[in-house]
UniProtKB/TrEMBL annotation:
Source species, domain of life: Archaea
Domain Oxidoreductase molybdopterin-binding residues, every copy: 21-164
SUPFAM superfamilies referenced in this protein's UniProt entry, alphabetically: Oxidoreductase molybdopterin-binding domain
UniProt-recorded name of the protein: Molybdopterin-binding oxidoreductase YedY
Length: 202
C-alpha cells in the first residue's frame, strides 16, 4: 500500500497551477542549456534531445497545495544522464524557464533515477498547460520544484532561492518533512506579507 505524505489528499484530477500565463514554445527554435559550475557546458536542440536515451517511470507526485497523484507514468531523459554529460562541480541546481521568468532551486542530493527532463505524461505528449513540450520532473520534492517549460539548468556551488522560495516557500521542499513554507510563516501570512495572490507554479 502506498504511503501518502502527511497532509496530502489523493486526487484523480491534475490541477493546473501556474505562476504565469502559458507560453507557446516552438520546438524548431527550442534549446536546453546546461551551464554554471560544470566542466562541459552544453546546449541541446529539440532534435538532439530526442536522439538521447529515453526513460519511463511510474511514480507519485505531491503538490505543496496538498493534492497528490499516484502511479502516473512519466517519460523523458534522466536528469542524472544529462548531468553526467556536463560533469557538475556544484551541489545545487537552478531549474529555469526563461519564457516566463520562473525558477526553482533543487539540491543535487535529491536527484535520483526518477528525476528527468520530461516530455510525456501517461503515454501522451505533455500538455502545454502542464509544462509541455518539456518540463523538469523532480518527484522527490513538492511539485513546484518541477519547473514547467524548462530551458535552462544551472549548476550552482551555493544554494540560491528560486521564484517561490523568494516569496516564502521552503528552500528545499521535502514532502516527507512537510517543508512547505518558511519556518514560522504559514501560507496565509505569506500572502499578506508579500501581497502575492498568485498560486504556486506546478
Amino acid at each position: 500500500m502506498t504511503k501518502i505524505p502527511h497532509g496530502q489528499i489523493v486526487t484523480d484530477k491534475f490541477p493546473i497551477l501556474s505562476a504565469s500565463k502559458t507560453p507557446n514554445i516552438d520546438i524548431k527554435t527550442y534549446k536546453l542549456r546546461i551551464y554554471g559550475s560544470v566542466e562541459n557546458e552544453l546546449s541541446f536542440t529539440w532534435e538532439q534531445l530526442m536522439g538521447l536515451p529515453m526513460s519511463r517511470v511510474k511514480v507519485d507526485i505531491h503538490c505543496v497545495t496538498r493534492w497528490s497523484r499516484l502511479g502516473d507514468i512519466w517519460e523523458g531523459i534522466k536528469l542524472k544522464y544529462l548531468l553526467d554529460m556536463v560533469k557538475p562541480k556544484g551541489n545545487f541546481l537552478m531549474l529555469r524557464s526563461s519564457y516566463v521568468g520562473y525558477s526553482a532551486n533543487v539540491p543535487m542530493s535529491y536527484i535520483n533515477e526518477d528525476c528527468m527532463v520530461a516530455f510525456k505524461f501517461n503515454n501522451l505528449p505533455l500538455e502545454k498547460e502542464h509544462g509541455g513540450p518539456v518540463r523538469a520532473f523532480i518527484p522527490t520534492l513538492y511539485f513546484w520544484k518541477s519547473t514547467k517549460w524548462l530551458d535552462e539548468i544551472e549548476v550552482m556551488d551555493e544554494d540560491k532561492a528560486g521564484f517561490w522560495e523568494k516569496r516564502g516557500y521552503n528552500m528545499r521542499g521535502d514532502y516527507n518533512k512537510e517543508e512547505r513554507y518558511w519556518d514560522g510563516l504559514n501560507f496565509v501570512n505569506k500572502l499578506v506579507f508579500f501581497g502575492n495572490k498568485d498560486k504556486d507554479d506546478e
